[in-house]
Write a structure and sequence with these properties.
The chain is of the alpha/beta class and about 220 residues long. Helix content is about 35%, strand content about 25%. It is built from 8 helices and 7 strands.
């Protein structure tokens, strides 16, 4: 397990990163990359969409250009404070303070689930992918963006000590173990030589069922 795959350390890390996140993020994950990934998810205008690990709301803003019913959840109150400043706490997005491993929603609550820049901090990525699948309605779509494994051996060993990096074969194994039967991977990159993102779009197996209301209310104005 990498250093930042520990939840307590990750929360501390984001307490400080949140102050500069929106200035640093474009060097790795640009608006153009975000829009390309949203095109892969291809949400319908009336879909209910969940942004897992929404952070400062960068992806959430892009999703709002496509759908009206967007929900965001993150374990870092410091990141959420930045998102609240941009988008408000309850309108147009319902934000929740919570853990991706234990999503506070019923089965099949969302038509589509998005997660970018979060999987690398999950201590148990397969279990968390199962959670994403659980809260997605049968036949719905899940999109996950994570860091592609570095191409140099020295940086690769260093990367593993920090957080989760993975290649397409490892992504195959994780998504299959999590119960997804249909998925494909795409490599996204800001520019040649820049860090590469591996973007996976997966379809939840069909079954009888429909989306239902979330179990929880939006996070309160004064979280603990």
């Amino acid at each position: 397990m990498g250093f930042l795959e520990d939840k307590r350390r990750a929360r501390t890390f984001y307490k400080y990163l949140s102050t500069v996140y929106d200035r640093v993020n474009p060097f790795v994950w640009t608006e153009e990359m975000r829009e390309e990934a949203i095109g892969m998810l291809d949400p319908d205008p009336d879909d209910r969409v969940l942004d897992v690990g929404c952070g400062t709301g960068f992806a959430t803003e892009g999703l709002l250009d496509r759908v009206d019913d967007v929900h965001g959840i993150d374990q870092s109150v410091h990141q959420l404070e930045k998102a609240w400043t941009k988008l408000g706490k309850h309108d147009p997005v319902s934000f929740y303070l919570g853990d991706a491993e234990r999503l506070p929603f019923r089965d099949g609550s969302f038509d589509a689930v998005w997660s970018s820049g979060s999987i690398e901090y999950w201590p148990n990525p397969v279990e968390t992918l199962r959670e994403l699948r659980r809260v997605t309605t049968p036949g719905g779509r899940v999109l996950v963006v994570g860091p592609d494994y570095p191409r140099t051996g020295v940086f690769g060993r260093l990367a593993d000590a920090i957080m989760l990096f993975y290649d397409e074969s490892e992504a195959d194994a994780m998504f299959a173990e999590a119960g997804f039967e249909e998925f494909e991977h795409h490599i996204q990159q800001r520019a040649p030589g820049a860090p590469r993102a591996i973007t996976t779009i997966a379809r939840v197996p069909d079954a009888q069922g429909s989306a239902v209301e979330p179990d929880t209310q939006p996070v309160s104005n004064d979280p603990a």
